[in-house]
Each structure stands twice: as C-alpha cells, then as structure tokens.
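Review this chain:
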Amino acid sequence: MPFSAVLFDLDGTLLDTLADVADATNAALAQLGFPPHPVEAFKYFIGDGMEQLARRALGPGPHDPELVARCVERIRQEYARCWDCKTRPYAGVSELLDQLASRGIPMAVLSNKPQDFTQLCVQRLLGRWRFDAVVGAGGQFPPKPHPAAARCIAQLLKVPPPQIVYLGDTNTDMQTATAAGMYPVGALWGFRPAEELRASGAQKLIAQPLELLSLLESQ
C-alpha cells in the first residue's frame, strides 16, 4: 500500500530542542536544591512528557508528588523564557518539508510536549509549512505511546493508518506508530540510538531527513 501522509514527532525529529530543555530543567532543579545534569543526559529524559522529564531529572525516587508538581511548574516557567534560545530545525528538515509540501503530501505533528509549547514551536519555527494537525500533550488524548491521538490524526487527514509514515526518534514514537497501525521510521539524528529504535519496532532507519523521500518514492 503506498504511503500518502507523514506524521512527525517534534523534539528530536523536526527540532533540536535538547539544549533549551536542558537549560530550563537545570534552572528548575537549582531552584529546588537539586544538582544539574549534562545536556547529553536529557536525550534520555525527554520523550514521555514534562512530568516524566521532571521525575527523571530529580533522580532516583520515589519523589513526593508535590515535589514533582513543583518541578514541572518551575520547568514550565523557565522553558517559557528560553524555549527558542537555541532550538532550531535539524539540518535537512526544511528541505524535506519543502519537498513534501510541493508534492501535496499531508503532514501532521504529534508530540508529548505540552500542547501550548508544541503549538508555539511549530508556529514560530516551522510556520512556513502547513500541518493539518498539531497535537501535544494535555488535551483530550492520553500521551504517547497510546495510539488514540495518532488514530484521530489519521481520521483528520482522511488517510488510512497503514498509508501514514510515522517519523520519530525514540522508542515511544516507534511504539506509538506500531500501535496505531502506521509505518514506523526511526530518525537517527535524534535523541536515541539505532538499537533502541529497532527493538521498539522501527521498520526503517534513516540518517538524514531527505532519505524519507526515497521511501515515499519507492511505493
């Protein structure tokens, strides 16, 4: 069955958000009396929503729910100040989106980043391109890897899930794609290694964004 739409993850797939998330979280940790983490550590903290980011950054638990909630709120406050200081599209993403748009291929974004920040990132940094749906966390759907949001996006696009390529960079993304009946493609320029992506269901791995075009053209 030919592929006729692309659903993207955001952090680690379209945008390199690592440094800004790290800076915001480390600032929040400092305010709460916890030590900071190196930026590279956040590759394994990001991907499952802001609450999980806070729990992982706070270190081995269990942590009091009130502390986690305070950490989340501090991260939100800090991230609102610095979300676009260092965040940029990955090399090759603009060219890929140009090519998909020129071919009339529907595109959408699904992220575990909070909805307000997801919308802000897409509008400000990816506003040149049309996305038929931009869905973040905190709305009517449970977070990824639950497939409900991905399936709803398929309905909005009016494209059957098997005809949708899901491009993401973490195990959560590959599990989401598989559960939704989409075709999981792992982005090797993102936050997680090839081994994790394969083990969690990736059907194909690509090292550069434009490689996605060859997959679409081969159908």
